[in-house]
Amino acid sequence: MDPKYQQIIDFIKESGEEIVEQFGKIKYIDVKHRFTSEYDLKIERGFEKIVKGFGEGHKLYAEEEHDAFSEANNLWVVDPISGTRFLIEGTKYYSIVATHVQNGKSLFSAVYGPSINEFFVAMAGQGSFLNDKKITINPSQPNPKIIFKVSDEWKDLEAAERVRLVLKTFNFEEVEKSEALNYSNVACGRADCFVLLGKDSFPSFAGQLIVTEAGGVFSNIKGESIINHDDKIFIAGEQTINDKILPLVQKALGSYYIN
Protein backbone atom coordinates (compact mmCIF):
# COMPACT_ATOMS: atom_id res chain seq x y z
CA MET A 1 0.00 0.00 0.00
CA ASP A 2 1.13 3.54 -0.77
CA PRO A 3 2.59 5.00 2.45
CA LYS A 4 0.36 8.05 1.98
CA TYR A 5 -2.72 5.86 2.18
CA GLN A 6 -1.47 4.14 5.31
CA GLN A 7 -0.87 7.54 6.88
CA ILE A 8 -4.43 8.56 6.06
CA ILE A 9 -5.81 5.29 7.46
CA ASP A 10 -3.82 5.68 10.68
CA PHE A 11 -5.02 9.26 11.15
CA ILE A 12 -8.64 8.29 10.54
CA LYS A 13 -8.41 5.46 13.07
CA GLU A 14 -6.81 7.70 15.69
CA SER A 15 -9.45 10.38 15.12
CA GLY A 16 -12.23 7.83 15.38
CA GLU A 17 -10.87 6.44 18.64
CA GLU A 18 -10.85 9.94 20.11
CA ILE A 19 -14.46 10.50 19.06
CA VAL A 20 -15.55 7.21 20.63
CA GLU A 21 -14.02 8.31 23.94
CA GLN A 22 -16.16 11.48 23.83
CA PHE A 23 -19.24 9.89 22.25
CA GLY A 24 -22.46 11.26 23.69
CA LYS A 25 -20.78 14.44 24.96
CA ILE A 26 -20.11 16.21 21.65
CA LYS A 27 -22.15 19.34 20.95
CA TYR A 28 -22.91 21.57 17.99
CA ILE A 29 -20.88 24.73 17.54
CA ASP A 30 -21.91 27.71 15.43
CA VAL A 31 -19.32 28.69 12.82
CA LYS A 32 -20.46 31.64 10.71
CA HIS A 33 -24.11 30.66 11.31
CA ARG A 34 -23.42 27.12 10.17
CA PHE A 35 -23.73 24.32 12.69
CA THR A 36 -20.91 21.82 12.90
CA SER A 37 -18.88 20.15 15.65
CA GLU A 38 -15.44 20.66 17.13
CA TYR A 39 -14.43 17.30 15.68
CA ASP A 40 -15.42 18.28 12.14
CA LEU A 41 -12.97 21.17 12.42
CA LYS A 42 -10.27 19.28 14.30
CA ILE A 43 -10.24 16.34 11.89
CA GLU A 44 -10.29 18.53 8.80
CA ARG A 45 -7.36 20.55 10.13
CA GLY A 46 -5.52 17.30 10.77
CA PHE A 47 -6.09 16.28 7.16
CA GLU A 48 -4.86 19.70 6.06
CA LYS A 49 -1.57 19.18 7.86
CA ILE A 50 -1.12 15.70 6.39
CA VAL A 51 -1.95 16.73 2.82
CA LYS A 52 0.44 19.69 2.99
CA GLY A 53 3.13 17.21 3.95
CA PHE A 54 2.51 15.26 0.73
CA GLY A 55 3.92 18.11 -1.37
CA GLU A 56 2.93 21.09 -3.45
CA GLY A 57 0.83 19.14 -5.97
CA HIS A 58 -1.55 17.84 -3.30
CA LYS A 59 -4.61 19.88 -2.31
CA LEU A 60 -7.42 19.40 0.20
CA TYR A 61 -11.07 19.72 -0.79
CA ALA A 62 -13.17 19.36 2.35
CA GLU A 63 -16.54 20.33 3.75
CA GLU A 64 -15.76 22.82 6.49
CA GLU A 65 -12.84 25.17 5.74
CA HIS A 66 -11.52 23.97 2.37
CA ASP A 67 -14.67 23.87 0.25
CA ALA A 68 -13.29 25.73 -2.78
CA PHE A 69 -12.87 23.07 -5.47
CA SER A 70 -9.39 22.71 -6.95
CA GLU A 71 -8.23 21.21 -10.24
CA ALA A 72 -5.08 19.91 -8.55
CA ASN A 73 -3.45 16.79 -9.97
CA ASN A 74 -3.74 15.18 -6.54
CA LEU A 75 -6.93 16.14 -4.77
CA TRP A 76 -7.89 14.81 -1.34
CA VAL A 77 -11.66 14.92 -0.92
CA VAL A 78 -12.62 14.78 2.75
CA ASP A 79 -15.80 14.77 4.78
CA PRO A 80 -14.37 14.98 8.31
CA ILE A 81 -17.66 13.82 9.82
CA SER A 82 -20.24 12.43 7.42
CA GLY A 83 -23.44 12.56 9.45
CA THR A 84 -22.58 15.21 12.04
CA ARG A 85 -26.19 15.24 13.26
CA PHE A 86 -26.00 11.54 14.07
CA LEU A 87 -22.83 12.09 16.07
CA ILE A 88 -24.36 14.99 18.02
CA GLU A 89 -27.56 13.05 18.70
CA GLY A 90 -25.55 10.13 20.05
CA THR A 91 -26.41 7.65 17.30
CA LYS A 92 -23.67 5.44 15.90
CA TYR A 93 -24.06 5.88 12.17
CA TYR A 94 -21.62 8.71 11.42
CA SER A 95 -18.30 8.26 9.63
CA ILE A 96 -14.96 9.81 8.68
CA VAL A 97 -14.40 9.87 4.92
CA ALA A 98 -11.46 10.52 2.58
CA THR A 99 -10.73 9.95 -1.12
CA HIS A 100 -7.60 10.51 -3.21
CA VAL A 101 -8.40 11.74 -6.71
CA GLN A 102 -5.50 11.86 -9.17
CA ASN A 103 -6.05 13.64 -12.47
CA GLY A 104 -9.80 13.19 -12.10
CA LYS A 105 -9.69 9.49 -11.19
CA SER A 106 -10.37 8.18 -7.69
CA LEU A 107 -7.57 5.86 -6.59
CA PHE A 108 -8.20 5.35 -2.87
CA SER A 109 -11.13 5.79 -0.52
CA ALA A 110 -11.62 5.22 3.19
CA VAL A 111 -14.83 5.26 5.22
CA TYR A 112 -14.64 4.62 8.94
CA GLY A 113 -17.58 4.21 11.30
CA PRO A 114 -15.81 4.43 14.68
CA SER A 115 -18.82 3.58 16.83
CA ILE A 116 -19.68 0.48 14.80
CA ASN A 117 -16.04 -0.55 14.29
CA GLU A 118 -16.32 -0.78 10.51
CA PHE A 119 -13.51 0.45 8.27
CA PHE A 120 -14.14 0.34 4.53
CA VAL A 121 -11.26 0.83 2.09
CA ALA A 122 -11.23 0.76 -1.71
CA MET A 123 -8.27 1.00 -4.08
CA ALA A 124 -8.59 1.32 -7.82
CA GLY A 125 -8.10 -2.04 -9.49
CA GLN A 126 -7.72 -3.88 -6.19
CA GLY A 127 -11.24 -4.08 -4.81
CA SER A 128 -13.18 -2.95 -1.76
CA PHE A 129 -12.64 -4.19 1.77
CA LEU A 130 -14.42 -4.14 5.12
CA ASN A 131 -12.04 -4.57 8.06
CA ASP A 132 -9.46 -6.02 5.64
CA LYS A 133 -11.85 -8.59 4.12
CA LYS A 134 -12.81 -8.23 0.47
CA ILE A 135 -16.46 -7.39 -0.18
CA THR A 136 -18.75 -7.57 -3.20
CA ILE A 137 -22.23 -6.33 -3.95
CA ASN A 138 -25.15 -8.71 -4.14
CA PRO A 139 -25.93 -10.31 -7.51
CA SER A 140 -29.24 -9.33 -9.09
CA GLN A 141 -32.12 -9.97 -6.68
CA PRO A 142 -35.81 -10.68 -7.44
CA ASN A 143 -36.84 -8.24 -4.69
CA PRO A 144 -33.92 -5.83 -4.36
CA LYS A 145 -33.59 -3.62 -1.29
CA ILE A 146 -33.47 0.09 -2.07
CA ILE A 147 -32.19 2.51 0.56
CA PHE A 148 -32.97 6.22 0.28
CA LYS A 149 -31.62 9.29 2.02
CA VAL A 150 -32.66 12.92 1.79
CA SER A 151 -30.12 15.33 3.24
CA ASP A 152 -31.27 17.62 6.04
CA GLU A 153 -30.23 20.50 3.77
CA TRP A 154 -32.26 19.32 0.74
CA LYS A 155 -34.79 22.10 0.09
CA ASP A 156 -37.19 20.73 -2.53
CA LEU A 157 -39.38 18.56 -0.33
CA GLU A 158 -41.99 18.06 -3.05
CA ALA A 159 -39.37 16.57 -5.38
CA ALA A 160 -38.12 14.36 -2.56
CA GLU A 161 -41.64 13.09 -1.96
CA ARG A 162 -42.06 12.25 -5.66
CA VAL A 163 -38.88 10.16 -5.55
CA ARG A 164 -39.98 8.56 -2.30
CA LEU A 165 -43.31 7.46 -3.83
CA VAL A 166 -41.51 5.88 -6.79
CA LEU A 167 -39.08 3.99 -4.58
CA LYS A 168 -41.83 2.73 -2.29
CA THR A 169 -42.97 0.44 -5.11
CA PHE A 170 -39.78 -1.55 -4.37
CA ASN A 171 -38.44 -3.15 -1.18
CA PHE A 172 -37.75 0.28 0.28
CA GLU A 173 -36.13 1.71 3.39
CA GLU A 174 -35.44 5.34 4.24
CA VAL A 175 -32.34 5.35 6.39
CA GLU A 176 -30.83 7.57 9.06
CA LYS A 177 -27.14 6.90 8.49
CA SER A 178 -24.24 8.84 7.06
CA GLU A 179 -24.20 8.89 3.28
CA ALA A 180 -20.80 7.22 3.18
CA LEU A 181 -22.03 4.32 5.30
CA ASN A 182 -25.04 3.86 3.04
CA TYR A 183 -22.80 3.48 0.00
CA SER A 184 -20.62 1.07 1.96
CA ASN A 185 -23.62 -1.01 2.98
CA VAL A 186 -24.48 -1.47 -0.69
CA ALA A 187 -20.88 -2.46 -1.42
CA CYS A 188 -20.93 -5.23 1.19
CA GLY A 189 -24.35 -6.60 0.21
CA ARG A 190 -26.59 -5.26 2.98
CA ALA A 191 -28.65 -3.41 0.37
CA ASP A 192 -28.84 -3.47 -3.42
CA CYS A 193 -29.14 0.20 -4.34
CA PHE A 194 -28.69 3.59 -2.68
CA VAL A 195 -30.45 6.74 -3.89
CA LEU A 196 -29.23 10.04 -2.47
CA LEU A 197 -30.65 13.54 -2.59
CA GLY A 198 -27.68 15.22 -0.96
CA LYS A 199 -26.29 18.59 0.01
CA ASP A 200 -22.85 18.13 -1.60
CA SER A 201 -20.57 15.53 -3.16
CA PHE A 202 -17.88 15.03 -0.50
CA PRO A 203 -18.89 11.55 0.76
CA SER A 204 -19.97 10.45 -2.71
CA PHE A 205 -16.41 10.50 -4.05
CA ALA A 206 -15.66 7.70 -1.59
CA GLY A 207 -18.98 5.99 -2.25
CA GLN A 208 -18.28 5.84 -5.97
CA LEU A 209 -14.99 3.97 -5.59
CA ILE A 210 -16.18 1.67 -2.81
CA VAL A 211 -19.28 0.60 -4.76
CA THR A 212 -17.61 0.22 -8.16
CA GLU A 213 -14.62 -1.68 -6.79
CA ALA A 214 -17.12 -4.03 -5.12
CA GLY A 215 -18.65 -4.76 -8.54
CA GLY A 216 -21.44 -2.19 -8.64
CA VAL A 217 -22.20 0.89 -10.69
CA PHE A 218 -22.50 4.54 -9.77
CA SER A 219 -23.98 7.56 -11.50
CA ASN A 220 -25.15 11.10 -10.98
CA ILE A 221 -28.70 12.06 -11.94
CA LYS A 222 -27.62 12.53 -15.58
CA GLY A 223 -26.45 8.93 -15.73
CA GLU A 224 -22.78 9.92 -15.84
CA SER A 225 -20.35 7.67 -14.00
CA ILE A 226 -18.11 10.60 -13.12
CA ILE A 227 -18.63 13.00 -10.22
CA ASN A 228 -18.79 16.71 -10.80
CA HIS A 229 -17.98 18.50 -7.57
CA ASP A 230 -21.33 20.32 -7.60
CA ASP A 231 -23.41 17.16 -8.14
CA LYS A 232 -25.83 16.35 -5.31
CA ILE A 233 -27.97 13.47 -6.61
CA PHE A 234 -26.51 9.98 -6.96
CA ILE A 235 -27.56 6.37 -7.49
CA ALA A 236 -25.28 3.43 -6.72
CA GLY A 237 -25.64 -0.31 -6.62
CA GLU A 238 -26.12 -3.46 -8.65
CA GLN A 239 -26.25 -2.85 -12.42
CA THR A 240 -29.69 -4.34 -13.14
CA ILE A 241 -31.53 -2.45 -10.41
CA ASN A 242 -29.67 0.79 -11.15
CA ASP A 243 -30.80 0.56 -14.76
CA LYS A 244 -34.39 0.39 -13.50
CA ILE A 245 -34.13 3.02 -10.80
CA LEU A 246 -32.27 5.79 -12.66
CA PRO A 247 -34.98 6.62 -15.25
CA LEU A 248 -37.68 6.47 -12.57
CA VAL A 249 -35.82 8.94 -10.38
CA GLN A 250 -35.09 11.16 -13.38
CA LYS A 251 -38.78 11.24 -14.26
CA ALA A 252 -39.79 11.94 -10.66
CA LEU A 253 -37.39 14.85 -10.34
CA GLY A 254 -38.03 16.36 -13.75
CA SER A 255 -35.88 18.22 -16.24
CA TYR A 256 -34.81 20.95 -13.79
CA TYR A 257 -32.46 18.52 -12.04
CA ILE A 258 -31.20 16.79 -15.18
CA ASN A 259 -30.41 19.64 -17.58
- Provide a count of the helices: 8
Low-confidence stretches: none
Count of folded domains = 2
Class from secondary-structure proportions: alpha+beta
- Whole-Å distance between the termini? 40 Å
Radius of gyration: 17 Å
The assigned CATH architecture of the largest domain is: 2-Layer Sandwich
Strands ordered across the widest β-sheet = 3-4-5-6-7-8-9
Element pattern in H and E: HEEHEEHEEEEEEHEHEHEEHH
Report the CATH topology name of the largest domain. Answer: Fructose-1,6-Bisphosphatase, Chain A, domain 1
Task: Describe the structure in your own words.
- With 259 residues, the protein is α+β, with helices and mostly antiparallel strands.
- The protein folds into 2 domains: 133 residues, Fructose-1,6-Bisphosphatase, Chain A, domain 1, CATH 3.30.540; 114 residues, D-Maltodextrin-Binding Protein, domain 2.
- Strands 3-4-5-6-7-8-9 form a 7-stranded mixed sheet, with helices on both faces. It has a 5-stranded mixed sheet with strand order 11-10-12-14-13, sandwiched between helices. A two-stranded antiparallel sheet has the order 1-2.
- Helix 1 packs antiparallel against helix 2, helix 4 packs antiparallel against helix 7 and helix 5 runs parallel beside helix 6.
- The radius of gyration is 17 Å and the shape is globular.
- The model has no long low-confidence stretch (mean pLDDT 91).
